[in-house]
Amino acid sequence: MKKKNFGGLDKIIPWRRLEYKDREKVMQNLASHEDWKSCFSEVAPGLLLFARQWVQSAADAEDIVQEAFVKFWRRNHKIENRALLYAAVRSIALDFIRRDSRRARREATAVGETNEFIEPQFEFEDDTQRALAEAIDVLPCEQREVLVMKIWNELTFAEIAAALGISQNTAASRYRYALAALRNILQPR
Questions:
Q1: Full-prediction pTM beyond 0.85?
Q2: From residue 52, how far is each of 47, 93, 121, 131 by CA, in Å?
Q3: pLDDT of 77-111, one tens digit each?
Q4: Which of 1, 70, 163, 168 has a CA between 20 and 30 Å from the CA of residue 78?
């Protein structure tokens, strides 16, 4: 009896089987694709505002939000878990800052000069908006972070706490301190 050589076939069949499983997984994910699109359109503006706290440009913030959403989607997290999504944006933004600062140090060393940090520039409709933005910029980072998440992104203290890795009471305190500080800064004397 002649022995058949299946050496090449053994390498191809598992690959095809894997490809078939990947296709099934992709087809299952497509069913929820519309949910993700609508979720992205609802949540993305708030996430962009949240990401802008750490990066210099709107384009960088968009990249961070997109990367967070893609990671979130690929890991099959539930859309309703907004706190985890904000935590992902924060983590990616902090990684971006670290990566950017390392690159800036390398470039400064190579060129022999340091680059100044550039604050993001926003267009304001009136002086009230400009005053509010300036007052928010003066707040400590922890308070500003909670304020943006609570007011502009409408997260609960539980969601903020989960995203930042702090207790709900700490989130509420930071929010209260931020409002008090804003009141003192903006109140006419």
A1: no
A2: 9, 9, 10, 18
A3: 777 778 888 888 999 998 888 888 777 777 767 66
A4: 168
Q: At what angle do helices 33-51 and 7-31 cross, to 10 degrees?
A: 80
> Cα dihedral angle (182, 183, 188, 189), rounded to 10 degrees?
-110
Q: What is the pLDDT of residues 28-62, one digit of tens each?
A: 554 455 666 777 778 888 888 888 888 888 889 99
Look up residue 1 and give its two tokens: 């009896």
Domains of the chain: 37-121 (no CATH), 125-189 (1.10.10.10)
Question: Contact 46/154 with Cβ under 8 angstroms?
Answer: yes
